[in-house]
Amino acid sequence: MFAPSQNIRLDIDALSGILGSISIACWLVVFTPQILENFRRSSADGLSLAFIIVWLSGDVCNVLGAILQVSVVQGVAGG
């Protein structure tokens, strides 16, 4: 078929950035009330260890995905 044009790639990159920003904004909106409540109570009793472990696992996967994505882009661009 047709090779993807540079314009399409830029649009996908822009969309990726926009969706990532929306994701971060959603997480801020979701967690802000809990953080404020815990701060006011001076307690973190409402947080379960399982939640923290799952959340941390997701973040580790996000970081690894970002690192691997950069490696793929550098490999394609360099060779």
TrEMBL record:
<protein>
    <submittedName>
        <fullName>Pq loop repeat protein</fullName>
    </submittedName>
</protein>
<comment type="similarity">
    <text>Belongs to the laat-1 family.</text>
</comment>
<dbReference type="GO" id="GO:0015174">
    <property type="term" value="F:basic amino acid transmembrane transporter activity"/>
</dbReference>
<feature type="transmembrane region" description="Helical">
    <location>
        <begin position="12"/>
        <end position="36"/>
    </location>
</feature>
<keyword id="KW-0812">Transmembrane</keyword>
<keyword id="KW-1133">Transmembrane helix</keyword>
<dbReference type="Pfam" id="PF04193">
    <property type="entry name" value="PQ-loop"/>
</dbReference>
<dbReference type="InterPro" id="IPR051415">
    <property type="entry name" value="LAAT-1"/>
</dbReference>
<dbReference type="GO" id="GO:0098852">
    <property type="term" value="C:lytic vacuole membrane"/>
</dbReference>
<keyword id="KW-0472">Membrane</keyword>
<feature type="transmembrane region" description="Helical">
    <location>
        <begin position="48"/>
        <end position="73"/>
    </location>
</feature>
<dbReference type="InterPro" id="IPR006603">
    <property type="entry name" value="PQ-loop_rpt"/>
</dbReference>
<dbReference type="GO" id="GO:0034486">
    <property type="term" value="P:vacuolar transmembrane transport"/>
</dbReference>
